[in-house]
Amino acid sequence: xxxxxxxxxxxxxxxxxxxxxxxxxxxxxxxCSVLLLMMTVISGKVSEAQAAGSSAGKHRPAASGAKGRxxxxxxxxxxxxxxxxxxxxxxxxxxxxxxxxxAATAAAVATTTAAATTPPVNTKPELLPRCGFTAASQxxxxxxxxxxxxxxxxxxxxxxxxxxxAPIASVTKLMTxxxxxxQKPLPMANRLEVTEDDxxxxxxxxxxxxxxxxxxxxxxxxxxxxxxxxxxxxAMSRDYPxxxxxxxxAMNARAQELGMKQTRFENATGLSPxxxxxxxELAELxxxxxxxxxxxxxxxxxxxxxxxxxGQLQYINSNRLIxxxxxxxTVQKTGFINESGHNMVLRLLVHDRRPVIVTMLGxxxxxxxxxxxxxxxxxxxxxxx
Length: 385
What we know:
Layout: H1 9-12, H2 16-56, H3 65-117, H4 135-139, E1 145-150, E2 155-160, E3 166-167, H5 172-181, E4 191-193, E5 214-216, H6 217-226, H7 230-238, H8 243-257, E6 276-277, H9 279-289, H10 293-300, E7 303-307, E8 312-316, H11 320-323, E9 329-337, E10 341-350, E11 354-363, H12 366-383
Antiparallel strand pairs: 1-2, 1-11, 3-6, 4-5, 7-8, 9-10, 10-11
Helix pairs in contact: 5-8, 5-9, 6-7, 6-10
């Protein structure tokens, strides 16, 4: 009658599922630990095997005894020697490459430096606009005829009416001195007296040398060149084998020898307007005069006291450029008559070493001729090396 409810199996053993679950977790943990341990052992064995294999070809057990030790030393020394040789070869290649690169660089630098510092060969000299040589400044020259010649290269640097024939006045005295000095022998200490034949009957110019004044030949030459003393030049032309006509003929013959085709001389003083030449041809006369030591010295002397037998006279240089040291020259001469205007020829030394010849004819004043010389000297000093 009474029904009793039968208990379920789960309810009869309530702890059994919990135990099973915990047992499963423990089993899994145990299996994982075992697997991890096995993997660790296997990994260690593999590493030892690899290490043993890699060192097997490099290290062998040393042989016993002295022979074994020698073989071991030789075997160890050989790779070390080879490695040293290899490193040495490598260093040698690197050093050689570096040395080659350094040499190439040095050669390139040397070539560049040489190209920058070596002046161009056979460069034609010229007057430069930056040195004031402009069309405007050229118009300011007072001389009608001008010729500037670089003697070192025989290059004309400037020309104005350089082939125009004109009277040259006392520039003549350079040729007078050349022809007179060509006499052999010529005792320079012997005295020469001024006579009536030495007076100027063409222009009637005045002179401080009176008739009867007695000078040494050396002093005659000196004041003729330095101060352009006309009576001294006239006396010199008279003191020549064959007299004055022979002397004038010798002057013209010498001009032809120098290639001065358009140059003519009528007297030794330059007082005649028929003493003619060109600025270009006068450059040849200056070259020839520069070969005579006495002409160089006398034409550049600034002053001189002359014994005339009955007293003394003091002479100064007629060229103010020389007298005041405004230019450096080796030869100079000035000249003036009304027909020619003021003339000047110079052989300048640019930078004290480079010869340049300057000839100027036909300035309207002595100052104009002097200023032309100063201007041209400035052009040269700035333009030429």
